[in-house]
Amino acid sequence: MLNTIRKLMGRADQRRAPSIPSGERVYAVGDIHGRDDLFEHLIHTIEQDDAARGRAHTTVVLLGDLIDRGDDSAGVVARARQWGREREVEFIQGNHEEMLLVASKDAEAMRGFLKFGGLETILSYGIDKDTLLAADAEEMQRLMNEAIPQDDFDFLDSFKKMHRVGDYVFVHAGVRPDTPLEHQLGRDCRWIREPFLSHRGDFGAFVVHGHTITPEPDERGNRIGIDTGAFLHGTLTALGLQGTDRWFLTASDNAAGCSEAA
């Protein structure tokens, strides 16, 4: 009996840290929300960091919510598309991309979209604010659909619900506990908070997500949240992963930097 207990305790102590496959490197970027200035700064920081770490097959994952709330969603979308032509970038769809796409087809959804930061997105495409606010829902929708290029709508609509590399899964909001990853609903991946945030069990992979704002990266035993409030706190965060190593890169209104995490 004593030997059995020792063996069980030994297994518990030897839990393997999540890892990225050999020869690969991943950078995950949290919610940008129209902060093109921070996004450009973080791109520069990631490119420098990637070059300094030596050769690897590097993938960048943007975790969604590129748009809304900040002043230059149009600029962020344009820069994200450009970066995707320059290197391997995976795009995850957030709830704010979903709201824009729904509002583009359903005028009844326009008011809710504007309330949650969509106004700033539409204005970034050059529409006059007074004209927009004076319009009814159908006219707002028409103005928005004329101002935003169809290529941008198609780009945002092409975003994935999740991306997996090694022991990690990358998703905008989270996943539903006790549901296999291959059966996760897109709506949960884009909107969920509870019961995901308080769950302490295994999700089937180590989850990297955004969506829920915290002043610093939210590191837990089964997940890391990296939405550090680009539009609210002025800090945009990226998580770097290689093997079992993790590190953070930031761009902020005050400074940019890199910190190591075990």
UniProtKB/TrEMBL annotation:
Official protein name in the record: Metallophosphoesterase
Assigned GO CC terms: cytoplasm
Alphabetized GO MF terms: bis(5'-nucleosyl)-tetraphosphatase (symmetrical) activity; phosphatase activity
Annotated Gene3D superfamilies: 3.60.21.10
Pfam families: Metallophos
Domain of life from the UniProt record: Bacteria
Domain Calcineurin-like phosphoesterase intervals: 25-215
Species in which this protein is naturally found: Novosphingobium resinovorum
GO biological process: RNA decapping
